[in-house]
Amino acid sequence: MNREVIPQIVALYERIETETAAFQAASGLHCPPGCGKCCDNPEVEATILEMMPLALELWRTGEAAAYLERLSTLNGSEPCLCYRPDPLVPGNGRCSVYTWRPTLCRLFAFATVKNKLGVPELAACIRQKQTIPEQVERAKEAIAEGMSAPNFGEVATEVANIDPSLGSDRFPINQALELALQRVGLIAHLTFGEKDGDWVA
Question: Is there a contact between 138 and 23 (Cβ–Cβ < 8 Å)?
């Protein structure tokens, strides 16, 4: 496995952060305060490649074995293992590994999908539609008028192009993390011995 893929996916993540931040600033669209509804969903999926930066971080910090043990007890119907629901406010919560979250988590509610005519349309989340419907409509209109926003399909293609064997097939997010931890474990001992903790050989 080529370790070059990890800094490539990290670089993509950094670009997505820049693009979504620019879209939020230009459109005024935002998440409802404290909302974690999108994380509390067992149908969230990711590729192995997308979970490899997190997997490498967990091996680096010595947490990988504990995560693998917890992942082995899941039956596949649970939400993301890294999600921490708010015990006081239903629907609210946070990601415990926010820096390393995969593309779906970065793009959700701030990206477009193409309709049957190939025209990009905002894929707003249900909580946004319920709590800030006016801002959702303004963002939709702005996209229709040409405002730039990331696109789910284009990002998925970029992920697959980095490494087709690891970046094409999507799995439930917990399974993707387990597979990434197993793969990264094979190279972790080489990576962590390098000067300054570099990602690559």
Answer: no
Interval 112-134: pLDDT, tens? 999 999 999 999 899 999 999 99
Contact yes or no for 187/134 (Cβ under 8 A): no
**Could you give the CA distance from residue 190 to residue 201 in angstroms, rounded to a whole number?**
8
Burial of 78 from C-beta contacts in 10 A (0-12 / 13-18 / 19+): middle
170-172 and 45-47 beta bridge pairing: antiparallel
* Percentages (nearest 5) of helix, strand, coil residues in the chain: 55, 10, 35
| DSSP state, residue 120 | E
CA distance 58 to 61: 5
Sequence ranges of the domains in the chain: 5-197
Alpha helices in 1-47 (DSSP H): 5-27
Region class of 197: left (phi > 0), else alpha (psi between -120 and 50), else beta: left
Q: Do 20 and 106 contact (CB within 8 A), yes or no?
A: yes
Terminal-residue alpha carbon distance, the chain: 12
15 residue type, one letter = R
**pLDDT at position 32 over 50:** yes
Q: What is the pTM of this model?
A: 0.89
